[in-house]
Write a structure and sequence with these properties.
By secondary structure, the chain is mainly beta. The chain is 15% helix and 50% strand. The protein contains 2 helices and 9 strands; from the N terminus they run E-E-H-E-E-E-E-E-E-H-E. Strands 1-2-8-6-7-4-3-9 form an 8-stranded antiparallel β-barrel. The chain starts with a strand and ends with a strand.
């Protein structure tokens, strides 16, 4: 399965991890696109509430640009920088061309959908 992230007029594909949180998130996206209002945090990530908790399997992780993770069981985080913290990995953007520009310095709305790869 592939994840599609729509930010404004830009669309990005991501490869998903294989874990319980991803399977639960896929179930949500199969019912309807998941739209999340995301705010900038510390100049390296966007974070937004999912609206429900997923099965977290947090591990100490150093993230890289393009990583998508679950924080605190109910927050989706997308990185355009790097951070070390305890997260559940969800996926990674396949092609980072335009990623940092799309995330920008302001709050964003991200629409997540899933499709067969």
């Amino acid at each position: 399965m592939k994840l599609h992230v729509q930010i404004g007029d830009r669309s990005f594909a991501a490869t998903l991890e294989d874990n319980a949180a991803v399977r639960e998130w896929i179930e949500m996206m199969q019912k309807a696109p998941v739209t999340i209002e995301m705010r900038d945090y510390s100049g390296f990530e966007k974070v937004g509430a999912l609206g429900k908790s997923l099965s977290a399997d947090d591990r100490q992780t150093t993230t890289a640009p393009g990583d998508i993770v679950l924080y605190n069981g109910n927050q989706i985080v997308m990185f355009y920088g790097s951070n070390s913290w305890s997260y559940t990995r969800l996926g990674h953007i396949d092609d980072l061309t335009g990623w940092t520009d799309a995330l920008g310095n302001n709050n964003i709305t991200a629409v997540f959908t899933v499709a067969e790869s």
